[in-house]
Design a protein that fits this description.
The protein is an alpha+beta fold. The chain has one helix and eight strands; from the N terminus they run αββββββββ. The N terminus is likely disordered.
Length: 143
């Protein structure tokens, strides 16, 4: 009786192993899709540029995913606007270069490129902007 149960258990495990491996691929794809959904959408908030006249500036990020790449737009309220170019992911952060091509104030010259990295923190999106040794941090919410 014990031998029959043992053979039956081993056979069941042997048959189940390929199914478990096959289920792992969709689970991994689902996890990647959930991670992408974590940063996609419209995010609004403010960021603080230490030592700048632009402290507590408003920002709107619109992030979309196409295939394995992200893209989007950025608007620094009252200052500059442009596009987001995806540079990759590292340390849990999604990295972008802001290509600021539109001035929102007459006579204002926009910094052409600014590095941005974003990471979800609960229901918020944390952003870190950097350019020429200056950093700014901000927190955004959906909407």
């Amino acid at each position: 009786m014990f031998r029959t149960l043992l053979v039956s258990a081993v056979t069941t495990l042997a048959l189940a192993a390929p199914v478990a491996a096959a289920d792992a691929a969709p689970a991994e794809a689902q996890a990647q899709a959930q991670q992408a959904a974590r940063i996609t959408g419209t995010w609004t908030g403010k960021f603080d540029v230490t030592g700048s006249n632009n402290q507590d500036s408003g920002v709107i990020l619109k992030i979309k995913k196409r295939g394995n790449k992200y893209k989007g737009t950025v608007t620094h309220k009252g200052f500059c606007a442009g596009t987001l170019k995806f540079k990759g992911k590292s340390g849990g952060y999604f990295k972008f270069t802001e290509m600021l091509t539109k001035s929102l104030q007459p006579g204002l010259v926009c910094t052409p490129t600014v590095e941005l990295k974003v990471k979800r923190k609960g229901n918020k999106l944390k952003g870190v902007w950097s350019n020429n040794g200056q950093n700014a941090t901000g927190t955004m919410t959906r909407g």
